[in-house]
Amino acid sequence: MRRFRVPAVTAVLAFQFLGAPAADAAPPPGVCHDPAPAHPQVRALPWAQQTLDPRRAWPRSRGAGVLVAVVDSGVDADHPQLRAPGKVLAGRDFHQPGGLPGAFDCVSHGTGVAGIIGADPVPGIGFHGTAPDSRILPVRISDRDVGDQGEALRIDPQVVANGIRYATDQGAKVLNLSLSGHEDFPAIRQAVAYAVSRDVLVVAAAGNAQRDTTELPSYPAAYDGVLGVGAVDINGARMPGSQIGGYVDLVAPGAKVLTTTRVDGHAYVDGSSFAAPFVAGTAALVRAAWPTLGAADVARRLIATADPARGGRNSDAYGAGLVNPYRAVTDGIDTDRPAALPAHVPAPPDQARLDEAAKEQSTSATSRLLTVIALGALVLAGLVAVVLPLGRRRNWRPGRVPRLPEQPAAVEPPDQIFL
């Protein structure tokens, strides 16, 4: 397995919503500062779901029994595709004091991540999650990522660490961290190591700060045991901004992908924040289908079954390639070893048949020779029949030969005269 890592938490939750707003949501009173507006429903089948097509894996696994922690801005448990009983647990809010649950969202970021992981399919809506039977544990560690003046807001590293440890202790088998930064905070590093040591598969976004080809640090994606995820667009090309580095283990759709928003709508969003949950949802499918595999084995399986990407195998921009939910679940599903082929024993030659073939070949050759002799005799007889009567009539005298034309006398040039 490649070395995984985790980015610092300076500019986190980088994303952008691209839809027309609808009615305002109703967050818990006094908790949300300037809550994001709601969005209308989108019925079209999104390109990301068409490309990855996790439905092909659902006959084998839908993620049942796997708890996925979304350490983010909270999750709106009232969304129609997330409100099934038991799908979104109460969770916990570490951002706001007071012991609130994490099952609400002020900015839709965590709701979008949770939808990509586990949203239920509903009639008339093309969007659905990757592992719809998985359960979501919302761990709220942030509100907005941009201030009133457009400045990037920092998340308290200790709050993030507390959320990671809480999710681990609650029995999460997959932990999604759609956040990144350039600094290595010991609190987060130690919390991630705590989760990894307890067989939690940690999935983190690679970040969206890339401006050129220089490798940037990215935490928590760069920590050991973390599966770092970059973002690609509908053409399979790296999304501008998706960071490049050895911490990129896989890529997933992250440009203009559709997901759930707070209240009950959908929106098109950008960012590696939304590529990571496609991998986290696929990890839930694998952990449900292969319950005896440890987190490291699941990570290796996701990497080994990825589809080739533009950067080639194990590139810093694309990692091992594009995550493939179907292959991740089904490859090697038949664990029986293939039966050994019997030794090849050539059959003894059929001598009678060989003799018969030789006889047929000899007969054919004789027939061809006799045919040639017979044709030659007929041609010779024809010539005799024509020439013999003609010779007798002429008493075997030669026929007239036409006279040759007279040649003019050659004119010899005079001898050379010397003066």
Automatic annotation (TrEMBL):
Residues annotated as catalytic: D72 (charge relay system), H109 (charge relay system), S273 (charge relay system)
InterPro entries: Peptidase_S8/S53_dom, Peptidase_S8/S53_dom_sf, Peptidase_S8_Asp-AS, Peptidase_S8_His-AS, Peptidase_S8_subtilisin-like, Peptidase_S8_subtilisin-rel, T7SS_pept_S8A_mycosin
Transmembrane segments: 369-390
Region (Disordered): 341-360, 397-419
Domain annotation Peptidase S8/S53: ranges: 63-321
A Pfam family per the record: Peptidase_S8
Sorted UniProt keywords: Cell membrane, Hydrolase, Membrane, Protease, Serine protease, Signal, Transmembrane, Transmembrane helix
Chief localisation class: membrane
Lipid bilayer topology: Single-pass membrane protein
Protein location: Cell membrane
One of the record's GO molecular function terms: serine-type endopeptidase activity
Keyword Phosphoprotein annotated: no
A single GO BP: proteolysis
Coiled-coil residue windows: none
Family indicated by similarity: Belongs to the peptidase S8 family.
Protein name stated in the entry: Type VII secretion-associated serine protease mycosin
Species, as recorded: Amycolatopsis regifaucium
